[in-house]
Amino acid sequence: MADTRTTGVPANVTQGSQTKGGIGESTLRPDGTLKVTGEFAYSSDMWHEDMLWGQILRSTVAHAEIVSIDTSEALATSGVYAVLTYDDLPTDVKNYGLEIQDTPVLAHGKVRHHGEPVALVAADHPETARRAAAKIKVEYRELPVITDEASATAPDAILVHEGRDDHHAGHVPHPNIVHRQPIIRGNADEAAERADVIVKGEYTFGMQDQAFLGPESGLAVPSEDGGVDLYVATQWLHSDLKQIAPVLGLPEEKVRMTLSGVGGAFGGREDLSMQIHACLLALRTGKPVKIVYNRFESFFGHVHRHPAKLYYEHGATKDGKLTHMKCKIVLDGGAYASASPAVVGNASSLSVGPYVVDDVDIEAYALYTNNPPCGAMRGFGAVQACFAYEAQMDKVADELGMDRIAFRQLNAMEQGTIMPTGQVVDSPAPVAELLRRVKAMPMPPERQWEDSEGADVRQLPGGLSNTTHGEGVVRGVGYAVGIKNVGFSEGFDDYSTAKVRMEVIGGEPVVTVHTAMAEVGQGGVTVHAQIARTELGVGQVTIHPADTQVGSAGSTSASRQTYVTGGAVKNACELVREKVLEIGRRKLGTYHPAWATAELLLEGGKVVTDGGEVLADLADVLEDEVVEIEEEWRHRPTVAFDLKTGQGDGHVQYSFAAHRAVVEVDTELGLVKVVELACAQDVGKALNPLSVVGQIQGGTTQGLGVAVMEEIIVDPKTAKVRNPSFTDYLIPTILDTPTIPVDVLELADEHAPYGLRGIGEAPTLSSTPAVLAAIRNATGLALDRTPVRPEHLTGTVPA
Amino acid sequence: MDFLRPDSWEEALAAKAEHPTAVPIAGGTDVMVEINFDHRRPEYLLDLNRITELSEWEVGEKTVRLGASVPYTKIMENLRAELPGLALASHTVASPQIRNRGGVGGNLGTASPAGDAHPALLAADCEVEVESVRGSRRIPIDEFYTGVKRNALAPDELIRAVHIDKADGPQQYSKVGTRNAMVIAVCAFGLAVHPETRTVRTGIGSAAPTPVRAKEAEQFLNSALEEGGFWDNGKIITPSVAKQFADLCSAACNPIDDVRGTASYRRHAVGVMARRTLTWAWESYRGNAARTEGVA
Amino acid sequence: MRVNFTVNGRKQEADDVWEGESLLYVLRERLGLPGSKNACEQGECGSCTVRLDGVPVCSCLVAAGQAEGREVVTVEGLADFAKNRACGGHDGEGKGGACGTTLQEAQGWSAKGTDSQTGEGGELSPIQQAFIDAGAVQCGFCTPGLLVAADEMLERNANPSDADIREALSGNLCRCTGYEKIMDAVRLAAARQSETASSQGV
């Protein structure tokens, strides 16, 4: 395979231990066998005797007053156990939301987007529930729809949310703006006067869907104490819990959540979907209730990536140094806030990209509109910015007549660079090196689709559809690099908790790791076991199911789990180790002087000295004692960005990846085949190299998708979603996905556990602009929007 | 909803006569999507899977009698020589799993302009054998499509087979989608060279309310080939002839803008596909067989 | 209505089936075989792929009534199916039975998944093992369908080219892996298969 790794010299980093299966090895997933045999229980696989099926009735219009809801006929349907509307909500808490609680559990008086939940049904069969839901009569009085910046910020615009009192309401320039974050550093206007070239551009980023394969689903089981047990697929159990319990009117300890198998997430499970609805129905009927969205509903059941308009201006001197950057990034947040404020912070603070620009004038904001709500998706605000600034970098380099890579390298940030927020980048930032590496990778052969027998259409644009045998096909190459923050930013208390237990079972030491970390496929469970083996020298590690019986692990997002929950597991293991050694000293200290004098390690199930001398078996140290420690762990704190200047040490860590895309475009038909998408990424330390490469390849492919095919299309006249299905929202198949050689660089970040760097998102950033650059290279077209479709490549966009 | 499971063709016809609203289901690749997504709740589902003859084909002297439920995979694997255009079209249908279930009868029954088989059937020329308890008849393919998702079937009729002329010359098929596999056609084009009648026939998919032929383009090309003596002299098609043929194929479209593509792109793409498929087929006729026929 | 068919070699009977139910629903919700997945229910993702009389199909698009009297192999029966094939046998020994994933089973998954270093017993088919070994499993939701499709391709084509693999798996969407490790897994299974074949002098 083409995957290569380069290890830098890690500073202050624990070296791997002698115990097999520790960090740095490509150990295999503990859930792998269950996943290949079909036994792994995903949230939609739950089943309970006597369970009911929940169904949600959703609005058929985007913006309307609800005149009336008549549920009588639905309730009278045989097999129906409950029909609930807003009026049935049990407490005064009727909204939820990640940061701003503006999202109604069920619509009240008004619907603000197409597909908003209006009523719930529980019945003994999904079809009974569907038929009953169809019998609920909702009378709407339609309102004009707000679908873009002009209609949202007009002085007389209808307010999507009237009477806002959230913590952003006071500083936004218009009530239909969720949050606005400017960043001012230096003086961009003055610096512009030094520029020999100035390049302006306007870019459009389409609405992308996470399109995780496992639909939103779960099972709520009412319990005898009046509480509820909820089995669900989510990214953050404790955040869900905080939003669910108040709506149900239950104390948090009576809402017991267990993570079910999660069929992918990518940000789309940060917000609640069916959680509260299933609990409400279960508590009302006294029966277990299962809800499973179908794919159509899933497109309405979670937030999407913000579509964006980006306006950029860069200047440079003729020797190739960037003088200044001005930009405005307008994100469409849709009807509810979701993660929009944090996405704004990211888009704004990362809008310059991985480059040194001292004089900047930046603003980013998110709109409230009647479009589908948008929030978290892999890359979180940094993706849209990267698409635009990388297009700008190519344009500036071209304007200067410089090599595009050399120009980027000349302006690349490095350790010590000051971000536009004033934050000093205090760990390796090998931007120039990543570009060098990705450029140095061997190019795929020309006309690889041709063999002795002629053209193999499967390897040409159009694939099996047999559209070309080489006619019109032109190759193009493009490069891009990006910067992503790791962890929750802007002063958020971004901690995690781990409970680690060591005991002797059947004469062997066994470690159990218990966290609330949502395993969504990323391989956190694999890594936790590796960390425990490394730290505690015990081969046998059990990963306890994630639930709310242990402290919060924070969200499985922002590339943070290996860093933060990994850090928490490492920390708890270290505390367990100290305790075990203390027991050893107490029991066995008199037998060997080294117990008192030497540095002691746990390796291979034994206590050993740093010189390698074995002092005791762990089994003999512990006997029937159990050591268990639950502890919170925090990375370095961050601070909020100043609301006027955007200054502040807002981010935890930065992550970098670079891509080279090689594409072949059928220039006559506007069809694209991505031939190869090579990536170089710095991962700090690869705790599990196999998983690291898998994450990079997966993130790269999601970037490819939004470059050439993925877009939720919303009708600008009605704000209704036009393609909520896998027939018309296309994600890449295996025939659309090229080989993805990966060059992994490991330059340790001394502030992070083992020197690691969060890696999940960075590859999603640079993939898209690299593909676009390659298509521009092949076609000579400007292409200022993504995804690019055949009509954009053939001049057949309607006027 | 009732599920009707006839064991024989006669039973199926009787069931359809008794319940004209019954929706036939064979491969299920259209009907089940509509049921799963709650777009359709037929009173009766009429399962045709148990009627084995529908999954059989017969190669005659002049024509192939293709059972309505012969899966696309079987067409690709077994009828490449006899029905090259349809074999190529079959290969573009959705995914291997869908090709294992779906057949031409479903495309014809649904009569969606996006059905992948239509352009190939139009270009090859064929008759659709339909039957009811009242009797059997054959509908020429040119008269089969009557409107958007409408066909010439009477409510009590079922599609039994398609009688397709065996290829007497090269046939080609292209389809544009915005993904390299598993994609519904943005538009599609089929072309068949018929040396025996010295004609070329075409079929266009997804670029008009129904699948259509580009008849003016065919007439133009047929005269140009005749006048230029191309059938005998084996010359390459001159670029100006190919271009005008392509333009006339574009002109035969009556497309709409939708989420899959713009009208203007569809017209453009049909022209490109017309020119390319004509070139490939004609090169093949001249003796330089193109590789794609081997891929189907 | 009542539907009788064979799943993983075992006769199954489902009662009170609504006529609009798919084979996928019956497998998952009535027969306790949720391994086949419900990602799109429109034939676009392949996660519900099963063998129907040996042929890979999307079980979401097979009406339950159409399965009457037929033989179905799901991911739950894949290991036995592959074993019987290797032994030249025909009848798979099913493991269906108890209905649904009980909460106890659901809670047990990760407790059971103690340590992949030591293996977990339980025999896997070569393609299943290759998916684990190659890192082709992330969230795993696409995995059952991919395994059934890939196993069937290797049955037909023991030495597939990369283009052959891509074509055969073009009906199975994966959102996590970018397909590279899936390609690795299928290549690995093919290589192991041909090693086994040559060592047995086949």
Automatic annotation (TrEMBL), chain A:
SUPFAM superfamilies: CO dehydrogenase molybdoprotein N-domain-like, Molybdenum cofactor-binding domain. Residues 1-30 are annotated as: Disordered. Residues 37-144 form the Aldehyde oxidase/xanthine dehydrogenase a/b hammerhead domain. Residues 1-18 have a biased composition (Polar residues). It holds the Pfam family MoCoBD_1. It comes from the Bacteria. This is Molybdopterin-dependent oxidoreductase. It comes from Streptomyces beihaiensis.
Automatic annotation (TrEMBL), chain B:
Pfam families: CO_deh_flav_C (PF03450), FAD_binding_5 (PF00941). Residues 1-169 form the FAD-binding PCMH-type domain. The keyword Thylakoid does not apply. The keyword ATP-binding does not apply. Keywords: FAD, Flavoprotein, Oxidoreductase. Coiled coil: none annotated. It comes from the Bacteria. SMART domains: CO_deh_flav_C (SM01092). This is Xanthine dehydrogenase family protein subunit M. The lineage of its organism: Bacteria, Bacillati, Actinomycetota, Actinomycetes, Kitasatosporales.
From TrEMBL, chain C:
InterPro entries: 2Fe-2S-bd (IPR002888), 2Fe-2S-bd_dom_sf (IPR036884), 2Fe-2S_ferredoxin-like_sf (IPR036010), 2Fe-2S_ferredoxin-type (IPR001041), 2Fe2S_fd_BS (IPR006058), Beta-grasp_dom_sf (IPR012675), Diverse_Oxidoreductases (IPR051452). The keyword Oxidoreductase applies. Gene3D superfamilies: 3.10.20.30, [2Fe-2S]-binding domain. Pfam families: Fer2, Fer2_2. Signal peptide: none annotated. Keywords: 2Fe-2S, Iron, Iron-sulfur, Metal-binding, Oxidoreductase. The keyword Iron applies. It comes from the Bacteria. CDD domains: fer2. Coiled coil: none annotated. Residues 1-78 form the 2Fe-2S ferredoxin-type domain. PANTHER family: OXIDOREDUCTASE WITH IRON-SULFUR SUBUNIT, XANTHINE DEHYDROGENASE IRON-SULFUR-BINDING SUBUNIT XDHC-RELATED. This is (2Fe-2S)-binding protein. It comes from Streptomyces beihaiensis.
